[in-house]
Specification:
This protein has 21 helices and 13 strands. The protein is of the alpha/beta class. It starts with 6 loop residues before the first helix and ends with a helix.
Length: 498
Amino acid sequence: MAIIGRKQEIQELNELYDSGKAELVAVYGRRRVGKTFLIDETLSGKLAFRHTGLSPIESEQKSITDADKRSRVSQMKLQLKQFYVSLQQYGMRKSHQPTSWIEAFFMLSSLMEQKDKGQRIVIFLDELPWMDTPRAGFVTAFEGFWNNWACHRHNVMVVVCGSATSWIQDNFIDNHGGLYGRVTKEIRLRPFSLKECELFYKNRGIRLSRYDIVQSYMVLGGIPYYMNYLKRGMSLSQMVDELFFGVNPRLENEYDRLFASVFSKPAEMKRLVEAMNKRHAGWTRQQLLKMTGMESNEAFSKMLKALIASDFVIKYVPFGMKKTQVHYKLADPFCWFWLHFVKGNTRLVTDFWQGTASQAVVSWRGIAFEEVCWYHWRQIRKALGIEGVQTELSAWTKLGRKASDGEDTIPEEDGLQIDMLLQRDDHVVNICEMKFYNDEYTVSKAYHKTLVHRQNVLERELPANTVVHSTLVTTEGLKYNDYSSDFQKVVTLDDLFE
């Protein structure tokens, strides 16, 4: 099966393979994003050893079924047992199951020495965070394996991989102990772009318009694992129903499994994510603490860091606020869709999504399209011709005052919300208005007044030498009328698919 996109990552892995020196490569990214597939396909036929840690979900279930609860096998022993099986699969003579990770890595190094014929030796350890069970001493053992054996052999290349991105960052990339500075290359795998989604669907013979590809992105977030469930000959609405609604949908338990397999405290993580889901613009740390009832401590900071590292959440500073006033917003389209339409849905009809045309769906499409644009803001910058200009991405919400009795609200004193601002070093600020529409967008007289108001309010907040450009990001373009000149530039789907 051909790899779609990932050209830079493939080139980097091949260059590392041919480097002629010891390499420790960390590949990480959101669960289901395609890390394992990338490594398996790029280094196909070149692996001297491959092992995948046991899922904390699967191994827990296994321990319950293998014996009664009183004699439950420890997670560490299960992981070591599976590692021993992998060693045997790659040629180690049957001996005994290792009792510690130090012994397990000694067995691995001994096996690699037996197989060493002078060629490149590639060791792939997948889902490393799952192996690091409580009190297992896994990281310390790996330090010894790398520092005492692997790093001294110029033909050894160790590739470690994990979906618990913050674990990889803390224990490997930002390690301040024995692995400090040892990672020779880090590769962070992101979700597909719209263009890569288009190539993916074409490769599988799935015919979708760009309009529907964007909608699939709103639901699945450019995650190849989810996209792989889509079928030829079905409409997007039919496929969404098959994945999420009706009887036994394919992704029925994915939301819970996603958090359980990545985070050590999935219930708390879901509580935090579901609090962020209540407002599109996001919340400050203090607001999240108040909403969730959690304590302000290092553990809470690590939770936020882990959500950001796993591409569930993004942090940004809204326009006009201090650098310390960081906001956290839910950015994962899959989670956003799940929490809006799947969570708590008890309807078993198989055509729920096909028959839904509610205002809730219309509102969701508008917000979800804004998230797609945030993820593709570099494509927007390219369409504006400002790739070489230093640009900061932000948003702005300004609260207005309420009109007193008998008084009309003064437009200039109204509140406003701008969902995307591009602040540029060339003294221009782009207000990006994002409209998901099934035809050319038409600027009405009322919307014209809104645009003028937003521009006037924003200009008062900017230095005198800075100008505001209103920019429309939409599907099919802009229909000409008396107010279409309000927009200095129009960005369409074709631009987002670059």
